[in-house]
Structure formats: structure tokens, C-alpha cells
Amino acid sequence: MEELLNQDVEKLWELQSVYSQLADRERQLSVKPESFAAIDREWQSANEEMARLSAQIEVLSKERRRVEGELSDQQELLKKYQGQLMQVKNQQQYAAAWKEIDATRKHVKELEDSALKQMGDIDVIQKQLDERNDAHADLKSRYDAAYSAWQSSLGDLRGEADALKKQAAQIESKLSEPLKREFHRVFKQRQGVAVVAVAADTCSACRSRIRPALAQQLKRGELVHCEGCHRILYLEKTT
How many Cβ atoms from other residues are within 10 Å of residue 231's Cβ? Predict the structure, then answer.
């Protein structure tokens, strides 16, 4: 039984080692080299700027449509007032009608000026967007080339990561379900480190001292958790 427990702890230590190596490979796979990071920043910045300009055009276009709709309504209203002018009966009604016409004409003029300004603003921003679109094709070509070169350089790392995943699966296949669940529970809770070595009667992760009773259990090959960080402890065999 003692030998069986000892073998289980050895497998857990081996599994932790494999997962640590896998985490290192995955970190390297996710880190962008500066040769790519520079063009990636330029690419992201260009896309964000184009998105910002497009959003501005959309907001202005929406406001322009609203103004043009209101302008159409005011022009119809002006025609109505001008028609009513011919039907007034006295000077007082005539003066009131002209007041309505004058106010509506002023509003129509304001709306026309606003629509023209919006058209001008849209044209300016559209010109900026067109200029960026012209340069975008070249930037995309440079980005694609740099991305391809980066991905090609990762071939060995991907191969190593795949091999480590297979190795971890093989080790886990030899563990009992309860032991496997315990490993992954601690692994998840302790930032990917479930098993740690004991050095000079101390947990190498949290530096807690290992009590003599626990040290004896470790020497017998039993499954022991650190009383400080609750990770599984591993005592290297002495020859």
C-alpha cells in the first residue's frame, strides 16, 4: 500500500512538471515578439481610427437625415402659410400671417445652413477615411506578412505543446479518478501549481515549515497537503 501511494505521488509530481512546461509553451505562444508587436500596434491603431471616422460619419449622416426631414416639414408649412396669406380678412390677420411666414422662413434658413454644414463636415471626414483606406491595403499586406512569419516561427512550440498535452493525458490515465479530481481542484485554486517540492522541511511555494508528523507521512509516500498553501507536497526520493 505504501509503495502504491508513493507511486501516486510520483505521478502527481510528474504531471505537475508536464503542466508547468505546457504553461510555459502556451505563454510563449501567446506573447507577441516585438517584430510583430510593432506592426500589430500600427494595425490596431489604424483600424480604431477608421472605425472612429466611420462612426462620426454615421452620427452626422443620421443628424443630417433628421434635419432634412424637419426642413421638408417646415417648407411644407411655409407653403401653407403663404397660401393662407391670400385668405386673410383684415390687417391684423395679415400681420399675424406674415409673422408666421417670417419665423418659418428663418427656421428654414437655419435648417438649410445646418444641412449644408453637416454635408461639409461629412465630406471632410470622408476624405480622411478615404486617405486611410488607400494606405490600408499596404498596411494589411505588411501586417499579414509579419503575422505569417510569427506563426511560422511557432511551429516547434506548438509541436512541443501538443506533445506535452498527450503526455499529461497519459499520466492522468494512470491515476484514480479521486486522485485526478484532487489534483485538478488544487491546480485550479492555486494558479496552476498543484504539487510543490519540499526543501529543507519547508514548502517551496509558501515557505511554511513542515511539521515532523507530516514529514514522516511524506517519507512514507503518503498524500500530504501543505498546511500553509494547501498544495500537495512532494518529497524527492533520497538514494
Answer: 23
152 vs 40: CA distance, rounded Å: 16
C-alpha cell at 80: 401653407
- Concatenate the DSSP letters of all residues of 165-229 into one string: HHHHHHHHHTS-HHHHHHHHHHHHHTTT--EEEEETTEETTT-PBPPHHHHHHHHTT---B-TTT
Interatomic CA distance for residues 129 and 131, integer angstroms: 5
What gap in Å lies between CA 110 and CA 232, rounded to an integer?
77
Contact 163, 155 (CB under 8 A): no
Q: 52 Cβ partners below 8 Å, 6+ apart?
A: none
Q: What is the 8-class DSSP label of residue 84?
A: H
> How far is 20 from 204, CA to CA, in rounded Å?
15
Whether pTM exceeds 0.70: no
Joined together, the cell numbers standing for residue 34 give 516585438
For every residue of 21-65, DSSP letters joined together read: HHHHHHHHHHSPPHHHHHHHHHHHHHHHHHHHHHHHHHHHHHHHH
> What pLDDT, in 10s, does the model give residues 51-74?
999 999 999 999 999 999 999 999
- Find out whether 16 and 193 touch, Cβ atoms under 8 Å: yes
pLDDT digits 0-9 by tens, 118-127: 999 999 999 9
Give buried/exposed letters for 103-114 (b at 16+ CB in 10 A, else e). Answer: ebeeebeebeeb
Q: Which of 220, 168, 238, 206 is nearest to 12 (CA)?
A: 168
